[in-house]
Every structure is written in structure tokens, then in C-alpha cells.
Write a structure and sequence with these properties.
This protein is an alpha+beta fold and 331 residues long. Helix content is 38%, strand content 27%. Strand 15 and strand 16 form a beta hairpin.
Length: 331
């Protein structure tokens, strides 16, 4: 099975079946134990609303494991769900996508937690490589393909040629950082405290990287706690304000793209003028992001189809043709 173990979502692909599970990477356990009460969507609903006896948290931070035990519990739960709760017999082979900036220790944590959760064989592949394969880029050709994979915790920018990564930059900025930026902005400007989940909803509803006249008129009602009086309150937040809140985060991503382009060998750079840049990952769905990157770099930019599932589809393709893509896996 192929797993995209993301900061925001975990997606599982099983050979010959396609994508069988797409759930938020959230797990709720009873406090002080590792007894899983809920994982995925049900647990995400609990975030920030739990009593003391239940802990709901996201065990992944910045694309890597922040809490080993909880990640293992979550993986085990998801493997059980995929196999309809037949537990004793199942020991799947797994390939897991990890960020390109991952350290050896962090990589060990991923493989160990997968083995603890019951896998018999674990290999890792770097996410931009998997995303490029999943987006249908010609990775085995001797020409440059550029992929920008914007996830929840990290954004990966890579130039790929001949089944391996030539230049790569991993920035620990992604969709979560955008949510936090909105939360901070509302707190600063309106003295209103909102949660990250509300921040995410605002981003999805009216967030943008580049404003257009149509977007500028949109607004949304935001509910939260007033920091001065301490009571719940509602404010009206407009699209230009959200755009202002996101400017720094988006600039960091554009900057990462620019740095990668500066370090690309000349021959590959000339290929990129024709092939352009492909965006994948949930963050690429932010309105106007492709246009902004295109404006800043002067290259054609497009969003891959099904950007949320590029990585897991790529890992799935690697699973099906292991001999062809063997070089793409990490050691």
C-alpha cells in the first residue's frame, strides 16, 4: 500500500483498488493511554473542543512525526480501517512519502512507526518526486520538470530529470502556516480569538494570493471570543484583509521557487521555459497562487489535476512498477 502521511491529511492507496482512505491526520486518545477513541474526520471535529479526559491532536508537524506513539496508533487504526478490521493476518508492504528536507532521525521515526503499526516492508520516497510522477510529468526523460508541492506543513520545490531530483528546496511553510497567519491577523486587528480550524475555513472560503475585482467584494462572518470583554462575538472579514494576512506566507513559497530556479543548471532551465512549473498539494488550491508565481517567475504555471492526490497517486504508480521506479526510492 502507498501512504501519503501528511501534516493535514493521510491518504492511503491500495494496489488495484485506488485511493481507499483520505482522512485528516488527527487522532483522539484517552488521556494518559494510547487507546484510540477516534481518528481522521471524527477526531478533527473534536480538535479544540475536548474535555480533560480526551486528547485530540495532530501527531504530524511540518511534514514529520512530532509524536511517535500517536502516529503509530493512528497508522494502525487506518490500516485496520482499510482492511475492514481483519487485524491478525494483515502485514502490508508500504511505501511512504516524506518531505525532501527530512533528517535521518525523522526518517527512522517514519519507518519505525510504520513497522510498529504492522508493516512488513517499508520504503520511503521523497514527496516532490512522488508528486511529479503522480502529476504525470515525464520524470524518466532527460529533460527538466519542475514541481511545487504545497502541503499542510511543508512546501517542496524540486527540479527533476532522469528519475532523480536535481535541485530541491524544502520550506517548512504550508497550509497550516496560512491558517495561523489568519488567526494572528484577526487577533491583532480585531482583538478576536479564533481557532486554527476557523482560520482554515476562512482560507478556503475567501483566501487568495492575488486579488481580482470579483474577489475583493467577498466577505465572511467570523465568530470567536472577544479578548477584551471575554464574550463571544462576530465580525465581518473581507477578502482583501485575508489576502493581507496571507501575504508573508505566500511570499515565502514564491521565494523558495525563485531560489530553486537560481540553482538549476542552465540546460534544465531552458527546458523549464517550455514545460513551466506544476503545482500540487492542497495549498496549490489557494486562489491566484498559480498566477502570482507565474507573474513573479515569468514561467507558465499550472495546477496539476487532482492536486490533493498527486503524491499518493505517484507512490501508487511506483508500487505498481517497482522495477521501473526503483531508483526513485530513498535508500
Amino acid at each position: 500500500m502507498a501512504i501519503d502521511l501528511g501534516t493535514a491529511n493521510t491518504v492511503v492507496y491500495v494496489r488495484n483498488k485506488g485511493i481507499v482512505l483520505n482522512e485528516p491526520s488527527v487522532v483522539a486518545v484517552r488521556a494518559g493511554t494510547s487507546q484510540v477513541l477516534a481518528a481522521g474526520r471524527a477526531a478533527k471535529e473534536m480538535l479544540g473542543k475536548t474535555p480533560e479526559s480526551i486528547v485530540a491532536c495532530r501527531p504530524m508537524r511540518d511534514g514529520v512525526i512530532a509524536n511517535f506513539e500517536l502516529t503509530e496508533s493512528m497508522l494502525r487504526y487506518f490500516i485496520k480501517v482499510v482492511h475492514n478490521n481483519r487485524h491478525a493476518l494483515v502485514r502490508p508492504r508500504m511505501i511512504i512519502g516524506v518531505p525532501s528536507g527530512i533528517t535521518q532521525v525523522e526518517k527512522r521515526a517514519v519507518t519505525d512507526s510504520a513497522k510498529q503499526a504492522g508493516a512488513r516492508y517499508v520504503r520511503t520516497i521523497i514527496e516532490p518526486m512522488a508528486a511529479a510522477i503522480g502529476a504525470g510529468l515525464p520524470v524518466q526523460e532527460p529533460c527538466g520538470s519542475m514541481i511545487v508541492d504545497i502541503g499542510g506543513g511543508t512546501s517542496e520545490v524540486a527540479v527533476i530529470s532522469l528519475k532523480s531530483v536535481v535541485v530541491c528546496k524544502s520550506i517548512r511553510v504550508g497550509g497550516d502556516e496560512m491558517d495561523r497567519a489568519i488567526v494572528q491577523y484577526v487577533k491583532r486587528k480585531y482583538n478576536l480569538l479564533i481557532g486554527e480550524r476557523t482560520g482554515e475555513n476562512i482560507k478556503i472560503e475567501i483566501g487568495s494570493a492575488l486579488l481580482n475585482p470579483e474577489l475583493s467584494k467577498q466577505a465572511i462572518d467570523v465568530k470567536g471570543r472577544d479578548l477584551i470583554s471575554g464574550v463571544p462575538k462576530t465580525i465581518r472579514l473581507t477578502a482583501p484583509e485575508v489576502n493581507e494576512a496571507l501575504i508573508e506566507t505566500v511570499a515565502a513559497i514564491v521565494d523558495g521557487v525563485r531560489v530553486t530556479l537560481e540553482n538549476t543548471p542552465a540546460e534544465l532551465s531552458s527546458d523549464l521555459v517550455d514545460t513551466g512549473i506544476v503545482l500540487s498539494g492542497g495549498g496549490s488550491l489557494l486562489r491566484g497562487l498559480a498566477d502570482l508565481i507565474s507573474k513573479e517567475t515569468g514561467l507558465p504555471v499550472r495546477v496539476a489535476e487532482d492536486p490533493l492526490f498527486c503524491v499518493v497517486k505517484g507512490i501508487g504508480m511506483v508500487l505498481q512498477e517497482l522495477d521501473l521506479y526503483k531508483d526513485a526510492l530513498m535508500e
